[in-house]
Design brief:
Distance between the termini: 13 Å
Largest sheet: 8 strands, antiparallel
Helix content: under 10%
Structural class: mainly beta
Number of domains: 1
Mean pLDDT: 94
Number of strands: 15
Shape: globular
């Protein structure tokens, strides 16, 4: 049977399942309750909470925080600006990993990562802007099928959901029993307040 598992690099640190928790973007590397400033800042902290946001479940080390700077640049954990590449953004520095497993060795096509409103997979997440990047596949730019710097969720622009040109297309994979996608995500609010209608999804075809 095919399964998905959403993972974050935390605690000891090690890859651990998100399970019933929530990935939280906030305004502090260490305090899950600090909000992001509306209108200017991208996330300055990424955490695992047991609600929206709930209490921090990261353990000894928090989720790596990858912040959007430009279509080809990022900042890691509040550090200086870096240029996107496999060498500068490691798998263990990504916001999350999605692991797809099947008992048989299968190839993957048409894989994509998207943001949605927690209810309808083709509807954008409410009140947020989001950039995403697939790491360790020779990418050098944030973006999805819309091209360089393409934003995968922009609520005010009605962009987002599992729609062509509004999602992050992931690289096809040759046959294996396990496929892991390392993804960096940067988000900011368009208005004041917690954003509960904001989820991620992955879809793919395997054979």
């Amino acid at each position: 049977m095919a399964t998905f598992d959403w993972l974050v690099y935390v605690d000891t640190p090690a890859w651990e399942s998100v399970a019933g928790n929530t990935i939280v973007f906030c305004g502090s590397l260490t305090d899950i309750t600090v909000p992001i400033t509306v209108g200017s800042d991208w996330n300055t902290g990424t955490h695992i909470g047991n609600g929206d946001p709930g209490t921090d479940q990261c353990g000894s080390n928090h989720v790596p925080n990858v912040a959007y700077v430009s279509s080809t640049q990022f900042s890691l954990d509040g550090g200086g600006t870096e240029t996107l590449s496999d060498g500068t953004l490691l798998a263990t520095e990504c916001s999350l990993a999605v692991e797809f497993t099947d008992a048989s060795s299968v190839a993957i096509t048409s894989a994509r990562f998207y943001c949605f409103d927690s209810t309808t997979e083709t509807t954008e997440a409410t009140g947020v802007e989001v950039h995403a990047f697939e790491a360790q596949v020779a990418n050098t730019e944030w973006g999805g099928s819309g091209g360089a710097g393409h934003i995968v969720n922009d609520a005010s622009g009605s962009i987002g959901g599992d729609n062509a040109g509004e999602r992050l297309d992931l690289v096809d994979r040759s046959a294996a029993t396990t496929h892991t996608y390392y993804i960096a995500v940067s988000a900011r609010p368009e208005s004041v307040g917690a954003k509960g209608d904001f989820d991620f999804g992955v879809a793919l075809t395997y054979s």
